[in-house]
Every structure is written in structure tokens, then in C-alpha cells.
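Quick one before lunch.
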Amino acid sequence: MAIATTNPATGRTLKSYDPMSDEQIDAAIERTHLAFQQLRGTTIAQRGRWLTAAADLLDADRDATARLITTEMGKTYAAARAEVTKCANACRFYAAHAERMLADEPADAEAVAAERAFVRYQPLGPVLAVMPWNFPLWQVTRFAAPALMAGNTGLLKHASNVPQTALYLEDLFRRAGFPEGAFTTLLVGSDAVERVLTDPRVRAATLTGSEGAGRSIAQIAGRELKKTVLELGGSDPFVVMPSADLDRAAEVATTARCQNNGQSCIAAKRFIVHTDVFDAFAERFVAHMSALRVGDPMDEKTDVGPLASERGRDEVHAQVRDAVEHGATVLCGGQQSDGDGWFYPPTVVTDLTPRMRMWSEEVFGPVAGLYRVSSYDEAVEVANGTAFGLGANAWTGDPAEQERFATDLEAGNVFVNGMTTSYPELPFGGVKNSGYGRELSAVGMREFCNTKTVWVGQGAAPAGTGAHAE
Ligand code: NAP
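Model of the NAP complex:
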């Protein structure tokens, strides 16, 4: 894949980059390795000052960075601005809380026959981050902020279609004061990932992206015995039960499916509705989806911009066509537009069966699958009937059902009467083919730490023994 900025709203390529040579990659790894020797010796308070400076820079640069993001991957300018602010907030969160998250944890010394015993969290070293384009600033920041605070350094291999955002991130952390090389962008294609990950100076890897890319990285890392965190795809269920607030559920369902032009791993993708309220929900949902304005992502009236690539747009349309050919019904949308840019209309498809690709595959665009179920058990069965397990939403006013969904849904997170989102305060990640490990919160920060057990026995020689005994 070419390393280039191509505006998805026009299809025009604005800037291209040559991939780094092997020598340049080597030099970048060495800089990151040397920066680690320096960063690990700094205090958490110092790193916190640098991360706070990064937050201030993000705020100051917000409008220009948002324009860049919109130009590179097509999300609306309003969404891009919100993403920049979210990154600044996450930097401030880790700057404020890292000291507590990384503090030594005392253990029960008596139980382990020690004078003192505790757990200490220490950095692992340079971490390779392979990242996607859909939240080009946020996906990187949610790795970089905790990793740098813990004293690790970062090597970013960003998606090939967001090179300018990738370069901005390297510049951001340098301007904030982190040592030269502490956060380095590698302008390389995915074919260079194996070379970087097998380098002994690189100690671990994190990937956010597709299942295929995750399997590839996990294989290499397994062979090399290197720690990985994988945040992969999802086909999140959004269950609506008879006691739900239908107006609110239909409104949130629309945002949950179409935010980020429908290209979010935690977007709700399968809407599983109890038969008692199916028609009422479908009517509201289709009305909201049809009312969304598709168009120029820089226009503040636009709700849904273009998809990030022509290939991605064609793939979404192929999934819809496949469903229709196998007997599904399109309730709105479903037509690929002519003209410049990779736009796709908000679409609702129902009468889905397991023969259709949409039943089992992730749809990475503003296309909702609508499923009818007749009981709680069937809702859970359909919701869990996927290889993915990232997020899950359940809408019900019944407290007993809320409890049951929280336990029964197979997912890394369950949001009841709300849509899935991420907060620095809460762990984020998936189960099944959605990956493993967690980002965010203290749990995410510790993924790239050596959780070191320290046991200290009696140091002083007992009275009457040893060299200095009288
Ligand atoms: P992708 O093709 O897997 O790309 C993601 C990153 O992996 C890019 O940097 C890409 O580089 C690289 N890559 C691709 N194939 C690779 C391989 N075989 N070995 C090493 N690196 C490889 O994913 P995408 O289609 O751009 O992004 C959408 C996917 O990401 C969806 O499945 C979505 O659900 C998932 N996602 C998950 C999360 C989460 O938190 N769980 C968040 C966002 C997105 P190139 O660009 O150079 O190909």
C-alpha cells in the first residue's frame, strides 16, 4: 500500500512518501533504544510534565490537526476536533495518575516469610505500535500516553494512509520535551513489521487493526517470545428489549452505527430487537438513519463523510449486495453513489440469514443489520453468535435483565442503556477474535510493564553470629 495522503472526499492524492530504507529503520530503532536508557532514568513527575506539555500542544494545535485528520481519512471536522480534545484529556489523565498506578504494591510479608515483599512496575523497553487510520490520533495516544509515562519508548508504524498524522505525533512528543527518539515514527509499509519486531532491541508490540493483521503479528511475536496486546475487529450487538426507552435507543443506535462514518471497531453493527418492539424500533431507526446528511466532511452540517478508501467502500457495498442476493431486505440506503469521493449512504438491512456475509463478517461502514428475536435467550444467542467479542450494548429498563446481560454477553465491555465508548478510567479491549490484552486505565499501563516481585529477607545477622559478632 502506498504511503500517501489521499483525500477520501475527492479521491485526490495530495502527498506521497518513500518508505524508509532498512538503514533508516535500523537507525530509528537505535535512537529509540538509546532513548529508553535515558527515559527509564527519569522520574514519573518529569514524564508527567512532558505529557502535560503534550496535552497543551494538542489543545493549541487542535484546529489544524483536525483539518489534517479530516483530509487524510474523511471523518467530519467536528469529530476530528473532538478526537484531538479526547487525546489531550487522556494525556492529562495519565500525567495525573501514573504515580499512583506505578507505585510499589506491598504484599503480606509474613505470609511469604519475608521481612518485606512488594510488587514493582518497571518499563519493558521500546514497544512497536502498529496502528489503524480510523482514529489516527486517539489509537496512538491511548498507547503512547501510558507507555511513555511508564518509561517505555514507542516506535509507531501507522496506517499507510495517514502519514502526516503519524509525523505530527512524533513531532508532538518531541516538542513536549520527551528525549529525542522516545517516540519515533517509522514511515514503512506492513511488509517491514516483521523486521522491526524481530529486532532484539524491540521488546513488545501492540496492534490495533484487523483480525488478519493481528494473527500475523501474534505469529511473529510468538516465535520471538515478545509480549503483545491486540485490539482487533468487532461486530458488536445492540440488543433492544421490550422495556427499553425506544426513542432513546433508536437515536443512540444511529450514532452508535454511523459515528466516524461507520468505521469504528466498537460501532454497534448488529441490532437485535425483541419481536414485541421490532416494528416500532425499526420505524424510528430507519427514520433517523435516512435523515443523516452525507457529504463534505468539512461542512459542519454533514453527519457522515466518505469512507477512508475506495477499497473499503467497495467492500461494504459488496457485503450489502451479497445479503440482497441471498434474500435480505434493504430498508434504507444500499446504493453506491456516483461522483468523486468514497461516500456510502446510511443503510439498514434486515431478513439476514447465516448464509450471508453480513451475518458473520464485520461491516466497516454505515450499514446496520437488523435482527428479530423472540426472547431474552434468543437475543443472547444471536448476540454471542459471532467470532468477535469486543463490545456489546443492551437496552432494557428491567434491572434483573440488566444484570443478566452484563454477565451473559461475551465481550470485553458491556454498556447497558448506552453506546460503547472508551474512557481513560476504564480498561478497553476484547475477547475471542477481537484480540487480547487491555488498553487504558492502570490495567492498560501495566501491559507493558515488568510486574516484578521483590522479596527481601532478614538482612542483619542475628545476634551472636556473623563476622562482627562479639
Ligand atoms: P488493518 O488493515 O489491519 O491495518 C491496521 C494496521 O496494521 C496498519 O498500520 C496496517 O498497515 C497494518 N497491517 C496490515 N496488515 C498487516 C500485516 N499483515 N502485518 C503487520 N501489519 C499489518 O486494519 P484496517 O482495515 O486499516 O482497520 C480497520 C480494522 O481495525 C477493523 O477490523 C477494526 O475493527 C479494527 N480496529 C480495532 C480497534 C480496537 O480497538 N479493537 C480499533 C480500531 C480499529 P498498512 O496501512 O501499511 O497496511
